[in-house]
Automatic annotation (TrEMBL):
It is a multi-pass membrane protein. It comes from the Bacteria. The lineage of its organism: Bacteria, Pseudomonadati, Bacteroidota, Flavobacteriia, Flavobacteriales. Residues 12-115 form the Polysaccharide chain length determinant N-terminal domain. One of its GO terms (molecular function) is protein tyrosine kinase activity. InterPro entries: Bact_polysacc_biosynth/exp (IPR050445), LPS_length_determ_N (IPR003856). This is Lipopolysaccharide biosynthesis protein. One of its GO terms (cellular component) is plasma membrane. It is found in: Cell membrane. It holds the Pfam family Wzz. The keyword Cell membrane applies.
């Protein structure tokens, strides 16, 4: 029992000491209220200044859907018939760029760089998106002070393969900034094939134009890649069709010439009719081949149309874009709280070290 009483007594002493210590620190900080208030005021002023200097961020959002025609329907029967005749009409590029692969394609350096090298018209002047980004970031003003950097330009006519080391380094920096801070591609629901692409920057026009340009570049690359096989087959069939048509026209002309040569010919001289008969066989053979090639060419065209368009835009960014701005009230509160807390922490540490001496 005596131990419990002693323990309670020690606890009361400790609590009392803690309260007294807290009161002591409170009194100390209260005596420094002018310093703390002054620091908070400075923080609020700096917060307001930051809110006025910081540019608003504009976000362009584009929504698109990927066409995934896995079943050919009636076309599948036609393709099967063509295959039975020994003709490969393609049938799409499979699902190499579907789902997450397609989203990664939007974020790829190759697609971003091609988009940056595309030209747009701003205020009546043609300029590349890369140059537009560089000017918006204020880099061009710094480069003009350097003789080597001032000559660097990024235009559509520039060949990426001929870029210098400095140009590659600058493009790498732009790509890293865009991929980490500006570009976001996501599929909000795995059950729905609708994909959103968001681009954020301090330049409203750049956000809009870069978003639309990137979708255009990826769409062209996607269509060219997926329909490459069927397009090549169609071109081959068209070339063969043109060749057979020319041969058929030549055979028809040859039949007419041979008939002219045998006009009023003595019936006993049948050997003179052989060239005409040969030409007639050529006409019949070429006619049959041409008929089959025309059918196969039309099937190839249907296959190519089946593969395009593969990316269908649903919603495009429309000006004015949504913007996010660091408000004045937010700057006052955050700046004042931060500097006030920092001042309190400094005073406490300083007073604590003084007591230890």
């Amino acid at each position: 029992m005596s131990k419990d009483i002693k323990q309670n007594f020690n606890d009361e002493i400790s609590l009392k000491e803690l309260l007294e210590k807290g009161k002591e620190w409170y009194t100390f900080l209260l005596s420094k209220w002018k310093i703390i208030l002054f620091a908070a005021a400075i923080g609020s002023v700096l917060g307001v200044t930051y809110s006025l200097i910081k540019k608003p961020v504009y976000t362009a959002t584009l929504t698109f859907v990927v066409e995934d025609d896995k079943s050919g329907g009636g076309l599948g029967s036609a393709l099967g018939l063509a295959s039975s005749l020994g003709v490969n009409l393609g049938g799409g590029g499979g699902s190499v760029f579907s789902g997450s692969n397609l989203m990664e394609l939007f974020k790829s350096r190759a697609m971003v760089e091609k988009t940056l090298l595309s030209n747009v018209v701003v205020n009546g002047k043609e300029i590349s998106l890369a140059e537009m980004y560089i000017q918006d970031q204020g880099w061009r003003e710094k480069w003009n002070k350097n003789a080597q950097l001032s000559k660097i330009s990024f235009q559509r006519k520039n060949n990426k393969e001929q870029f210098s080391r400095v140009q590659d380094s600058i493009f790498g920096e732009i790509f890293n900034n865009l991929s980490k801070n500006s570009l976001n591609v996501e599929q909000k629901d795995i059950k729905v094939s609708i994909i959103n692409i968001d681009v954020s920057s301090t330049n409203e026009l750049f956000s809009k134009m870069f978003t639309e340009g990137l979708v255009k570049q990826v769409s062209n690359f996607y269509i060219d890649t997926k329909s490459k096989k069927s397009r090549e087959n169609m071109l081959i069939l068209e070339h063969q069709t043109d060749s057979i048509r020319r041969a058929l026209n030549g055979a028809i002309t040859g039949v007419a010439v041979a008939n002219d040569n045998t006009f009023n010919l003595n019936p006993a001289l049948n050997v003179k009719r052989v060239p005409s008969a040969r030409r007639q066989v050529d006409v019949q053979a070429n006619t049959a081949i041409l008929t089959e090639l025309v059918k196969q060419t039309e099937l190839a065209k249907v296959t190519l149309r089946k593969d395009t368009p593969l990316i269908q835009v649903i919603d495009k960014p429309i000006l004015p874009l949504p913007k996010e701005k660091f408000g004045i009230v937010k700057g006052v509160l955050l700046g004042g709280m931060f500097f006030g807390f920092l001042t309190v922490l400094t005073l406490v540490i300083k007073q604590f070290l003084k007591q230890l001496q």
